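Hello,

Our lab assistant flagged a job as stuck in the queue for most of the afternoon. It eventually completed. Since we weren't sure the result was trustworthy after the delay, we are filing this so someone can double-check. Below is the sequence as submitted and the structure that was eventually returned. Let us know if re-running is recommended.
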Amino acid sequence: MKYEITHTNIFEYENDVDQSMNHIRLKPSTDECQHLLSYQIDITPPSMTKESIDLWGNTVESFLIPQKHRSLEVKTTSVVSIQRAPFIERIEYSSEMKSIFHSRRFKEHYLPFLKENTYTFLSPEQVEEMMQSVGNIENPVQFSLELMRYLHKTFTYDTEATNVHTTAQEAFALKKGVCQDYTHVMLGMLRKKGIPARYVSGYLYTGDNAEFIGDSASHAWVEVMVPGIGWIGLDPTNNVEALENHIRIGIGRDYTDVSPLQGIYRGGSQTLEVKVSVKKLESL
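-- returned structure --
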């Protein structure tokens, strides 16, 4: 599949802003299944970007607007090619995989994706509630799948119930939220189970499947580390393996590691308008 993604962020400031320093994570990644074919960024007022790679391997673009301005527009246009085949349902949990999963070396290597934090913390009561429904399944692949199905069935997708600061504990209490909330709750439970799991940010193409649910601005899902196999994507919002409709930008421990826009400015309050378009292109 080949996609063109246009992502526009428009900031309007209450007063003139003296200057602003901004960091964005909007450039899709390239890996063995996804290839970034082209990428362009347009900034108004004009500014040059400096590109760097963060701790998790994500591309960060930084830029400074030194002059006074009342608005800021950041528009990115990407063309991405993706080829991913269904995989997780065919994985057999072998004795070798079990040995790796329970090894000290495996736990130490993936420690950042096993530790709970503010966003992914769940109370003991919430953990017990999920365990009773999902079951204490030893196979980490099957446990991850059953947990994904449970969250999809139990939660209600609601764009008004939460915000970007909502934690997994708060979202689970509501049983409502958006893809970010589904993802944080799933991460918290997987990590309690001792399964390395990381947060993925990106886009979701919904054009061919009206049943897919996703935020109009961006999407989030989980990647689970399967011993001897690698990272496998699971989308609890839609109860599917993350395949050709899922366009990855970055990964991290939680939302704060992959926040698409971060900035500092001197001035009054601001508003933000986000427009995202994901269009499938004809493959050559």
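-- support follow-up --
The delay was a queue issue, not a problem with the job. The result is valid. The first helix runs from residue 95 to 101. Helices lie at 95-101, 104-109, 124-134, 140-154, 168-174, 179-192, 255-258.
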